[in-house]
Amino acid sequence: CSASTGVAGGALPREQKGAPAYCKYWCQYPDQTCIKRTGSPRHRLTAASPTSGSGSGRCAGAGVVLMAEQEEEEVGDGFWEEEGEEEEVYSPEDLKPVAPDTGGDESLRATTAEPGDQDESAKVEGSNTAHLFVFTNDKAGMGKVDKSKVNKVVYEMSKDSAYFAHASSQDKKNDKRIHDLREKLQSLSLSRRSSLASEVSALEIKLEKQRFCRRVCVVVDMDCYYAAVEMRDNPHLRDKPMAVGGIGMISTANYKAREYGVRSAMPGFIALKLCPELIFVRSHFDKYKETSDRVLTVLRQYDPHCRMMSLDEAYLDLTEEVSRRQVEETSSKANLEGGAQMELEEMASRVVAELRAKVQEASGGLTCSAGLAPNFRLAKIASDVKKPNGQCIVPFHREAAIAFLHSMPVRKVGGIGKVMEKTLKEVFGVETVAELFEKRLELFHCLTPKSSHWLLRVALAIHHDDEAKAMAEWKTAVGDGEDAAEATSFQSV
C-alpha cells in the first residue's frame, strides 16, 4: 500500500469521517495486516495509520487485489463506479509508459518468454493455483494469450502474500467440501438413480412450461469502456498497450494490453510484469459518467425501461420495438408466428445494429457489442461472443438456445464462479453446460434441492426475471449450517 509515502502498492481510498480505512488488497505492513471484510471486495486495516510504526511502509511483495471476493460473480469494468468509490491511482506520470525493472527476466512477459527460460515448477504451481484469482480468467481479446505464462507470473508475485495464504486456506476448506461430496456421490445406488430420474423428468416438464422464446432480450456492453474513453480523448494511445488504473489495480485494459494477459481486476504491478510497456492512465469518472448518460439517452429510444447494470452495460427488452417494426412491414401480427421465425430474428438483428451505430455516434466513436436472445442469461453470454464491436444472436427457439448454451464452459454462466467451477469439475467431471445437463441426476443426489434446481434451469437455458429474487429468498431461508455454506459456494445470480 502506497499510503502517503507513494510507495508502489495498493491505493488507499480517502478516509471518511467515522469510517475505517480500507486497503483494496491484502498487504503486509510491518505493523498491520489486512483482514477480509465479509460481503465486500474491500479490506479493513486492523492497525493504525500506514505511516506509523517502523519500516519503510512498503507492501511486502505481492498483495493481490481481491476484486471479486463476491466469489461467484466476476467484477466488470464498471466496478469502481458501482461501489461508489473512485480509485486513487499511483503512477509516475499520466499517459507515460512505465518501465519497471524486470531483472532481465524476459520470461515474465506472457507473449515473449522462451520455453528454456521458464521455471517449470512455477508454471505447474501457477496452473494449480490459477483458480484462486479472478483475474486469471479470460476476457474478450485474450484468446491467444499463453495462460501458463500468465499463471506463472501471478503465482511468483503472489505466493508470499497474505492474500495468497488466505485464499489457499479457503481453498482447503472447499477441498474438504469436495471430498465430502465425492463420498456422497459414491452412495448413489441404482434404486436412488431411478427415483431421481422420475423426479427430475417431472421437474423438466414443469420448467419447460416457463420457457418463452418470443421475448427479445438484449445486453449491450461497451468495449473496454474506460480505456475506450481515454483512447478517444488521447488518440496516440490507440495502438499502445494501456490500462485505466495504476500499480494498485486496473479497472480495465485495452485490447492491445489484453494480448499480454493484462485485464481488469488485475493488480498493476503484475500487469507490468506481463507487459513492461504498459501505460497507466488515471481514471476520470466525470467523463465516463457523462458518456454513459449519452449512451443511455440512445438506449431509451428503444426501451424506455432499460436497465443500466453499470456505466458500460445495459439490459434492454426490445420485444415491443421489434414487434412494432414487424407490424409496420407486414400486414398483421400473425406474420410473427410459425413460419415468420426467421423474420423475427432478422428484424431484431437489424434493430440492434441500428442501436449500436447510434451509440457509436452519440459517444464520440466508442463501439459496443451486443447479445440477443430469448432471455437475459443467454443474451449476457452472447454479448461477449463477438467482441469487440459485434453482435451475436441466439436463435429464438428451444433447440438452438440449448445448443448455444451447452457449447459453453460453465464459467461463462453468470453465477458460476471459481469456487463452483472447481467443485463441479472435481466432483462431477463437469466443465461444460452440456455436461451439467448430463450429470443432473448426480447433482440432485449430492446437492441441496435449491442448488440442483437452479443448475437444472441453467442447463435447460431457462431464465426469468424473478430468479434473482427467488435465489435471494432461498439464501435467507436456508439459515446457518452446512446448507448455508453450500449456498455460499453454489448460489449467486
Quick overview:
Residues 71-91 have a biased composition (Acidic residues). This protein has helices spanning 79-82, 120-129, 147-158, 162-186, 190-208, 225-233, 255-258, 268-274, 285-299, 319-329, 341-362, 376-382, 398-406, 418-428, 433-438, 440-446, 449-459, 467-478, 482-490; strands at 22-23, 28-29, 32-36, 43-45, 217-222, 242-245, 250-253, 279-281, 307-310, 313-317, 368-373, 391-393. It has 493 residues and is of the alpha+beta class.
Describe the structure.
The chain is α+β, with helices and mostly antiparallel strands and 493 residues long. Among the domains are: 60 residues, no CATH class; 122 residues, DNA polymerase, domain 1; 129 residues, Alpha-Beta Plaits, CATH 3.30.70. It contains 19 helices and twelve strands. The strands form three sheets. A five-stranded mixed beta sheet has the order 9-10-5-11-12. The N terminus and C terminus are likely disordered. Pfam families: IMS. One of its GO terms (molecular function) is DNA-directed DNA polymerase activity. One of its GO terms (biological process) is error-prone translesion synthesis.
